[in-house]
Amino acid sequence: MDKIPILKIGHFLMVAIQVDLYDRLALNLESDLVQAVSKTGARGVLIDISAVSIVDSFMGRILGNIAGMSKILDAETVIVGMQPAVAITLVELGLPLKGVQTALNVEKGMELLQQKIQVTEEEEPEE
Amino acid sequence: MKLDTAKILQKRKKQILELWMKNQLVDFSLREDLMSNEELTVQSEELVDVLLQALSDVNLDDIHSIALTPVHEALEGISISRAKQGYSPRETGTFVFSLKDALLSILQQEIKNDPVQLLEESLKISKLIDSLGIVTFETFIKGREEVILRQTDEIAEISTPVIRVWDGVVAMPIIGTLDSARTQVVMESLLQEIVDTSSNIAILDISGVPAVDSLVAQHLIKTVSATRLMGAECIISGIRPEIAQTIVHLGIDLSGIITKATLASALRHAYSLLQLEVRKSAVK
């Protein structure tokens, strides 16, 4: 059974999807990732889909689900490295992934996450 | 006595060709700039060969016979090449119809003493050439349509350049009407450029779009959503007052999209997003 590795980097979790996701794998990833977020108390999740060239509505929904679940567990999700063809397909499918943060590459995604976390950390002491 | 028209014509092939060439050369629609007389002779000879060959095994009454297929093919070839070379329809038509004159005058010489037969055979020949003329025209127009389609593709390609305005900022001026096919090209080249240059901001300038209706607006919204999915921000600029009016009248919701009146203000917005500042340099 294939498994997609979930790496912990500082406050964040990072997932690099290097294979084309089939439905079972995507479902496993969803549950694994949510488990990992709650176990590690990560503040951000970075999903790199630069190697994914095929996407369908199910995959789009899974990505949305992951973002929604992480949000509930107080972690931001950033999807990075989407291929142009994938972006066009998602738009044509009517899934603009509202509420999901995106960035061009892992580096920029990291920056974005760090900014977000900093903002919330600065706010916290005032509470 | 039954005369064999095909045989007669075959026998007088040389004269037919000569006569036809003479007809073509005196006609004012001769285009020596597009094709030399030698080339024209070769082309004509080929056609006469094929035609007479086909006539020998075809019944002249049946103009839809399969035996005429090689003639049609030869004519189609000539017609398409002429369409691409820029011949006018009249010139192409004259090419075929002047053959009729040649054939008829040869026939006249051969069947001098039987007017009834002459009339009958002339009618058949004339019918045949007319049908060949129609084939020529059909292909001529098809050839022209191919030229038009190719040009449309070229226009679609050249009219969607992506410009690197600044490090991390790309702009794309859209000129002309946005339809589904063009949106696809626009989206693909814009997204590809964003990946290639790893730009954060894309500016879509629509000052060259003559009108925006709900369909065009939908295409724009799609492009903006796709850019966002890639992780870049998309600004739409160059919205003229009339276009702003139509957008509001049509009830199109562009509130989720950053819109600017000019490319300059879009660029200013891009700078502020990138935390850049444009300043006058100190006076020396």
Care to describe what's here?
The complex is a heterodimer of chains A (127) and B (284). In chain A, 48% of the residues lie in helices and 17% in strands. With 127 residues, chain A is of the alpha/beta class. Chain A has one domain (6-126): STAS domain (Transcription Regulator spoIIAA, 2-Layer Sandwich), CATH 3.30.750. In chain A, strands 1-2-3-4-5 form a five-stranded mixed beta sheet, with helices on both faces. In chain A, helix 1 (23-40) links the parallel strand 2 (12-16) and strand 3 (44-48). In chain A, helix 1 runs parallel beside helix 2. Chain A is globular and about 40 Å long. The model of chain A has no long low-confidence stretch (mean pLDDT 85). Chain B is elongated, with a radius of gyration of 32 Å. Chain B folds into two domains: 5-155, Globin-like; 163-273, 2-Layer Sandwich (Transcription Regulator spoIIAA), CATH 3.30.750.24. In chain B, helix 1 (5-11) packs antiparallel against helix 3 (37-56), helix 2 crosses helix 5 (89-110) and helix 4 (69-85) crosses helix 6. With 284 residues, chain B is of the alpha/beta class. The interface between A and B is medium-sized, with 20 and 19 residues.
Task: List the SSEs and their pairings.
The complex is a heterodimer of chains A (127) and B (284).
Chain A: E1 6-9, E2 12-16, H1 23-40, E3 44-48, H2 57-72, E4 76-80, H3 84-92, E5 101-103, H4 106-123
Parallel strand pairs in A: 2-3, 3-4, 4-5
Antiparallel strand pairs in A: 1-2
Helix pairs in contact in A: 1-2
Chain B: H1 5-11, H2 13-26, H3 37-56, H4 69-85, H5 89-110, H6 115-158, E1 163-166, E2 169-175, H7 180-197, E3 201-208, H8 214-230, E4 233-237, H9 241-249, E5 258-259, H10 263-273
Parallel strand pairs in B: 2-3, 3-4, 4-5
Antiparallel strand pairs in B: 1-2
